[in-house]
């Protein structure tokens, strides 16, 4: 191909994408079910794509993706020495575009990056882009059970069809791997952290191998969660004591067996001595002793242990302090291939939490953060909550460079659109993009996702992106504003039950433990005169959070028990501010409905209607939250619901009697809806 023709084709590709040719005129859009995610580029099959060198399955995929999707001039892929195996450079020279990397994974990521630039209308004149991932470990954690259910999964059943494997290997495994690779996710923990020991039986390991074989060409490593008592349950040993020689040997043999099947196996994720799971503390051993025993078995093969710090034994009356109290004294005691995996906040994936102080107090221990994509506490797959702003908020406190990796509890299932809500896909997408480059803004990522998933017309992208960016804050406002947390219903984490009392239940599983509303005020006093959780933060934050007059209002009721009449920055009393925040959350949910309705000309009618009906549920749920919380808290404040806001439409008594009939693995069709 001559140079002019090549430049012409590049120019055509740029113009076409800038003009947003993937948006048809209103009325001409064919229905889509969302199964193609953000990878909707139509097959073109005309691109000249060259590679010279030893072919690998990943490079074959890179070539085929480019041949199918690239609409510009020739592209050459080249392996070169030096640099990270996942890093890449894309640049243009007189022969067209070149992608170079030291590894085949890097070439694959480079191919997806080039396609993303094309499909989002990026400026590709004089292209010269060098990219390297911020974290080595960019892993999805699936809480999938052997019976096909998913703990806190709201998008159908598990992707993994354990009953059919290894004989039948579903095509969705590759589609899943492809989606991950396209955003740079390089690992998947296949099973629930509440792990069944049976994952380690020979029969099941062969199934794990079958999945690993599908994920590998896309650069996605396979990991599994293991149950600490496996030597007893699977190996019939009398103990699982990590210092017992027989136990160590059992794990070593098991690990050897795994690597015999899966030579590039990633390692184990472990939830130990947490919520009833077995662990080293059952034998008087520490978390470090438990983790290091597994690490020794894995180290010879280059495997790692991701050891979760999600523990809350009653070492202190404040649950928010317990993980730090248990793990901080172990700082420096973990083997080099152990990474302590810490949830972003000190409690449990609430709509808003301050960061977990373990991130700044573990100075000699590799750590990784665990985020939750599945919306266990943010309206399941019914509510639109774009989570990138939540993750960015975390990175404002915990620099990515201080972390080894990032894990996301997956929101995928076997629903046709993967995530239950079309906009749930944006969290999967954003997780991958931010794990690669946490410096991207939430808006940049939302825009990329919208352009590829729906349409690039700015009349669509600008308002819908605005809605996404405001969505998480709206959820905070209508569920738990000003630092309130964990006031969910007992049987599920979907709707409000701030009044919930269950005789004999752990106090720290009940909403009243968290909101502490009484006649004087509301909120959990974690200041120095309260539980003193503030002291777990560095001095400057300890002072900031510990003083009611300087504490950021978004964390106010997290750190303080505040009188109802307390003057807020707005000039309102705390009670009035609470009323206004709840009301604002409701009006935001309603505004999102308007934004979406106006987007109708740009979206196929199937996906338009799907999202429209979810937004209706979200608005109704927002009113439910507002009416329930405000009327219940009014019984303590003794104050009327601020007159400037919408009046309650539900009776407190009705809401208190209402029980949503769902299990933890279902997404309800609606909430309280009288
Ligand atoms: C996998 C919360 C969830 C549990 C989850 C646990 C964890 O408690 O409600 O379903 O269990 O966190 O992260 O281990």
Overview of the molecule:
This protein has 674 residues and is of the alpha/beta class. It has 3 domains: 49-131, 2-Layer Sandwich (Chitobiase, domain 2), CATH 3.30.379; 137-453, TIM Barrel (Alpha-Beta Barrel); 478-524 and 561-657, Alpha-d-glucuronidase, C-terminal Domain, CATH 3.90.1330. It is 38% helix and 10% strand. It contains 20 helices and 15 strands. The protein has helices spanning 3-18, 57-69, 104-119, 172-183, 202-215, 230-233, 245-261, 287-299, 319-327, 358-361, 388-397, 424-436, 442-453, 458-479, 511-515, 539-546, 556-559, 574-598, 605-637, 652-657, and strands spanning 49-51, 75-79, 88-93, 96-101, 128-131, 137-141, 187-189, 221-226, 267-270, 304-308, 338-343, 367-372, 405-409, 521-522, 562-563. It has an 8-stranded parallel barrel. A 5-stranded mixed sheet has the order 1-2-4-3-5. Strands 14-15 form a two-stranded antiparallel ribbon. Strand 1, helix 2 (57-69) and strand 2 form a beta-alpha-beta unit. The longest helix is centred in the last third of the chain and has 33 residues, at 605-637.
Write the layout of secondary structure elements.
Elements: H1 3-18, E1 49-51, H2 57-69, E2 75-79, E3 88-93, E4 96-101, H3 104-119, E5 128-131, E6 137-141, H4 172-183, E7 187-189, H5 202-215, E8 221-226, H6 230-233, H7 245-261, E9 267-270, H8 287-299, E10 304-308, H9 319-327, E11 338-343, H10 358-361, E12 367-372, H11 388-397, E13 405-409, H12 424-436, H13 442-453, H14 458-479, H15 511-515, E14 521-522, H16 539-546, H17 556-559, E15 562-563, H18 574-598, H19 605-637, H20 652-657
Parallel strand pairs: 1-2, 2-4, 6-7, 6-13, 7-8, 8-9, 9-10, 10-11, 11-12, 12-13
Antiparallel strand pairs: 3-4, 3-5, 14-15
């Amino acid at each position: 191909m001559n140079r002019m023709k090549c430049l012409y084709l590049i120019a055509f590709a740029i113009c076409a994408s800038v003009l947003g040719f993937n948006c048809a005129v209103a009325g001409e859009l064919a229905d889509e079910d969302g199964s193609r995610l953000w990878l909707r580029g139509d097959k073109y099959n005309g691109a000249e794509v060259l590679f010279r060198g030893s072919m690998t399955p990943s490079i074959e995929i890179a070539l085929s993706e480019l041949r199918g999707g690239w609409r510009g001039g020739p592209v050459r892929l080249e392996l070169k020495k030096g640099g990270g195996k996942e890093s890449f450079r894309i640049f243009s020279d007189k022969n067209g575009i070149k992608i170079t990397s030291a590894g085949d994974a890097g070439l694959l990521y480079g191919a997806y990056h080039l396609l993303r630039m094309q499909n989002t209308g990026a400026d590709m004149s004089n292209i010269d882009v060098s990219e390297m991932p911020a974290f080595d470990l960019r892993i999805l954690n699936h809480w999938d059970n052997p019976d096909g259910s998913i703990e806190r999964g709201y998008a159908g059943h598990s992707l993994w069809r354990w009953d059919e494997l290894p004989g039948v290997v579903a095509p969705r495994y590759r589609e899943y791997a492809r989606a991950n690779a396209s955003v740079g996710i390089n690992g998947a923990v296949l099973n629930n952290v509440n792990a069944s020991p049976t994952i380690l039986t020979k029969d099941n390991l062969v199934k794990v191998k079958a999945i690993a074989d599908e994920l590998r060409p896309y650069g996605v490593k396979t990991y599994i969660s293991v149950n600490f008592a496996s030597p007893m349950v699977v190996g019939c040993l009398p103990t699982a004591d990590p210092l017992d020689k027989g136990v160590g040997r059992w794990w070593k043999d098991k690990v050897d067996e795994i690597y015999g099947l899966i030579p590039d196996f990633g390692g184990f994720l472990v939830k130990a001595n947490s919520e009833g799971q077995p662990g080293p503390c059952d034998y008087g051993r520490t978390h470090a002793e438990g983790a290091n025993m597994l690490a020794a078995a894995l180290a010879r093969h280059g495997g790692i242990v991701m050891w979760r710090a999600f523990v809350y034994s009653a070492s202190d009356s404040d649950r928010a302090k317990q993980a730090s109290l248990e793990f901080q004294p172990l700082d420096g005691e973990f083997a080099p291939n152990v990474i302590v995996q810490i949830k972003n906040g000190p409690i449990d994936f609430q709509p808003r939490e301050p960061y977990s102080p373990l991130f700044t107090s573990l100075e000699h221990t590799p750590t990784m953060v665990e985020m939750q994509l599945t919306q266990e506490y943010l309206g399941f797959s019914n509510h639109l909550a774009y989570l990138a702003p939540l993750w960015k908020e975390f990175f404002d406190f915990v620099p990515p460079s201080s972390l080894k990796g990032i894990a996301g509890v997956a929101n995928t299932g076997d629903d046709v659109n993967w995530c239950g809500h079309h906009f749930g896909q944006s969290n999967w997408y954003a997780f991958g993009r931010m794990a690669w480059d946490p410096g991207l803004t939430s808006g940049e990522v939302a825009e990329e996702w919208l352009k590829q998933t729906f349409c690039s017309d700015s009349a669509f992208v600008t308002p819908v992106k605005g809605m996404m960016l405001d969505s998480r804050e709206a959820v905070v406002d209508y569920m738990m504003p000003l630092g309130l947390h964990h006031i969910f219903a007992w049987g599920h984490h979907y709707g409000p039950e701030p009044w919930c009392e269950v005789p004999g239940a752990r106090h720290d599983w009940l909403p009243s433990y968290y909101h502490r509303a009484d006649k004087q005020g509301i909120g959990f006093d974690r200041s120095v005169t309260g539980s003193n959780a503030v002291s777990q933060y560095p001095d400057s934050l300890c002072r900031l959070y510990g003083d009611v007059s300087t504490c950021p209002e978004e964390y106010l009721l997290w750190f303080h028990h505040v009188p109802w009449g307390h003057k807020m920055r707005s000039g309102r009393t705390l009670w009035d501010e609470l009323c206004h925040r709840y009301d604002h959350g409701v009006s935001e949910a309603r505004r999102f409905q308007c934004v979406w309705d106006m987007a109708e000309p740009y979206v196929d009618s199937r996906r338009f209607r799907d999202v429209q009906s979810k937004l209706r549920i979200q608005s109704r749920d927002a009113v439910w939250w507002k009416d329930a919380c405000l009327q219940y808290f009014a019984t303590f404040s003794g104050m009327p619901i601020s007159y400037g806001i919408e009046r309650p439409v539900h009776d407190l008594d009705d809401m208190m009697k209402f029980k949503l009939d769902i299990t933890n693995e279902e997404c309800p069709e609606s909430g309280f809806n009288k």
